[in-house]
Amino acid sequence: MTFNISKIILPTDPGIYLMRDSDGNIIYIGKAKNLKNRVKSYFNQNQNYKTQKLVENISDIEFVLTDNESEAFLLESNMIKKYRPRFNIELKDQQRYTYLRISDEKFPRLLVSRRTRDGKFLGKGKTFGPFTQGSSKLLTIGTLRKAFQIRICKTLPKKVCLEYHLGNCEGPCEFKDAQDRYHKHVAALEDVLKGKNKTKVFTKKLEEEMQQAAESQQFERAKDIRDTLIRLGSLQTKQKMEYIENSDEEYFGICIQEQSAAVMNFRMINGVIRDSDKFFFDLVGDNSFSNFLFQYYSTHPIPKFILVSELPENQKLLESLLSEQSGFNVQILSPTKGKKKDIIHLILKNIKLIHSKGGDPGLVELKEILNLDVIPNIIECFDISNHGEEFAVGSMSRFVGGIPNKSGYRKFKIKTISGRDDFAMIEEIVKRRYYRLLEENSELPDLIVIDGGKGQLSSAINALESLGLNLPCISLAKENEEVYLPKNKNPIIIPKYKASLKILQYARDETHRFGVAYNRAIRKNKIK
Fold first, then answer.
1. Is the CB of residue 101 less than 8 Å from the CB of residue 127?
2. Disulfide: which of 113, 244, 295, 302 matches 326 by Cβ 3.0-4.6 Å?
3. What whole-number distance in Å separates Cα of residue 136 and Cα of residue 151?
4. For all residues of the chain together, what is the average pLDDT?
5. C-alpha–C-alpha distance, residues 395 and 89, integer Å
6. CA–CA gap between residue 110 and residue 322 (Å, rounded)
7. What are phi and psi of 443, to 5 degrees?
8. DSSP code for 141
9. CA distance 262 to 349
10. Domain map of the chain by residue range?
11. How many CA atoms lie within 13 A of 188 on its CB side?
C-alpha cells in the first residue's frame, strides 16, 4: 500500500528527508531547497521503476531542517555515509581510515579493527579511531605494543617467548607480577588511543629515546623513532569521527515539555552543518541537561566549544571535567547574537517540528489522552490466543513511531498455566517479557497495551509490579473499543475517527493476527 503523504506535515524549508520502511530502517536520504515540493514529487505518476519501488517501501518520512541548500547537501552526504541506505549511492571509501582494537581477552592485545560491508566492526573489545594516514598503522601499532608491553602472541604460551627476551613484553604468561601490571599497561594504552594527556607523556618518552639514539650514533634507530613521532601525531589530532574532523564547535538545543526533554545537536565543520542527532530522556531523578552532555561526551569526541540553547547546571564543573578528559580547554557557551544564535534557533525549530509531528499525530494524541509523561514512541501489545484447553499461546507486537516493527514481534508458549485462564496467561507472558528485557538491560517500551478488559489489565499490572516496574499500561476491550487505565474505575472512550485509537487498534489487530498464526501452526504440527 502506498504511503499516505497527506498524514504528515511537509515543511517548506531547505533540509534533508529520511524515508523509512515498515521496520523503521532508513531506506533513502535526500536533500531539497523546498522539502514539501521535493517530497511530494515522489508521489506523482509516471515515475521510473526504481522510484516506484522506493515509494512502495516507504512507511514514514522525517525531516532535518537547514538554513540553506548548501548545508542540506553536506548534511545529506554525511548522513548517507552514516546510515548507508539501500536506495542511495554507496561510496566505498572506508579504507582511507584505520581503526584500532583492544581485544577483550584476559590479557588484551592491540589489533587493527576490521569492518564488514555494512560498517560493523569485527571482533570483540574496544575500538578506537578512525586514524588517518593508514599506511603508518603497522609501525604505529608495533611502537605502541613495545612501549606499553602489550603481547603479540595469538595464543597465550605457557613459557615466555622471544618478545620477553627482547624487552617487548613482561611475560604475563609466566610471571605473576607481570600479570598484575599488565592491566595498568592496557589502561595507559587506552588513554593514548583516546587522545588524553598521557599521549604527551608517551611522546616525550620517545623524544628522549630518539635523543639518546642520536648521541649513541644509532642513526637508523633515531630515524625510526622520528618517523614514529610524525605518524603518532595523527593519534593526537585526528582521532575524531570522520564527520567532525577538525571541527571545534558543536551545537545543542533542548526543549522541555512537562517531565521529558528533547535534545538535538548539529556538528559543524567550517561553519557548515555536517551531521545531526536527536535524543529524548525523562526528567527523572538526577536526569538533567548537564548529565546528558557528560554522558554524550563519554562516547563522542569533545570539541573546544559547546554551544547550547540554555546553559546547563554545574556548567563550570562540566567544563572542567571535559577539559581534563580532552586535554584542552573546553568552553560551554549560550550565544546571544549572530550566526551562532541563528544555528541554535534553527535547532529549536527542528525540535518544534519533531514535536508537532511526533512520529505520528496519533502518538501525540495518545500522550495527551492517557496523560503520559512522554510520547509513546515504542508500544508493545500482548494477546492470548486460545483454541480449546490444549492449545494456548501468547503473542506480542511492537510498534515504533506508530508503525509495526516486525523484527520486534514475539510469541510465547504458555509454560506455567493449564486450562483456559486468560488472566494468568497474560500475567505469565508479560512477566517473562520484561524479566528478560531487564536481564539483558534492553530498552523498555513507552506504553504497554493489553488486548482485553479490566481483568487482563490487572494481571499485567501484577506482573510488572512483581518486577518492580512502573511502566504505563492500558487495555483495549474489543466490544466497544474501551480503553482501561489502572487507576480509573471507568474506561475511556476514544472517538473512532481519532488517529490515537487507530494506532491502538492496529497494534491490537497485529498482535491477534500474529498469535492466531502461531496457534494454527502449533495445531497443524500436533496433528501431523
1. yes
2. 302
3. 20
4. 81
5. 39
6. 26
7. -70, 130
8. H
9. 12
10. 5-83, 95-237, 243-356, 364-527
11. 16
As given in the structure block, the three cell numbers for residue 115 are 569492518
Contacts 24+ apart (CB under 8 A), 41-50: 43/2, 43/3, 43/5, 50/87
Q: Is 305 left (phi over 0), alpha (psi -120 to 50) or beta?
A: beta
Question: In the structure grid, which three cell numbers stand for residue 326, read together?
Answer: 580532552
Which run of H or E residues covers position 61? strand 60-65
Same fold, 243-356 and 364-527: yes
The closest of 209, 224, 246 to 138, measured between CA atoms, is 224
List the Cα angle 234/112/196 in 5-degree steps.
Answer: 40
Strand-pair category, 391-400 with 410-413:
antiparallel
Look at residues 15, 24, 165, 155 and name the one whose alpha carbon lies nearest to residue 75: 15
pTM to 2 decimals? 0.37
Give the residue carrying C-alpha cell 504511503.
Answer: 3
**CATH code of the region 5-83:** 3.40.1440.10
* Length of the chain in terms of residues written: 528
Contact 334, 308 (CB under 8 A): yes
Instruction: Report the alpha-carbon distance of residue 130 to residue 245 in Å, rounded.
Output: 10
Q: Quick one: CATH architecture of 364-527?
A: 2-Layer Sandwich (3.30)
Strands (E), 388-423: 391-400, 403-404, 410-413
Buried residues in 140-178 as b, exposed as e (16+ CB within 10 A): bbebbbebbbbbeeeeeeeebbebbeeebbbbbbeeeeb
* CATH superfamily for domain 243-356: Ribonuclease H-like superfamily/Ribonuclease H (3.30.420.10)
User: From CA 9, how far away is CA 63, in angstroms rounded?
Assistant: 10
Amino acid at 67: D
Among 354, 361, 411, 405, CA closest to 379 = 405
In Å, how far are 16, 83, 137, 205, 248 from 142, measured between CA atoms? 44, 33, 8, 16, 31
Report the range of poorest mean pLDDT among 159-163, 248-252, 429-433, 521-525.
Answer: 521-525
- CA end-to-end distance (rounded Å), the chain: 36
Question: Cell 531542517 sits at which residue?
Answer: 65
Q: Residue 154 phi/psi, 5° resolution?
A: -70, -40
Per-residue confidence band for 149, with pLDDT thresholds at 50, 70 and 90: confident
Cβ atoms of 225 and 206 closer than 8 Å: yes
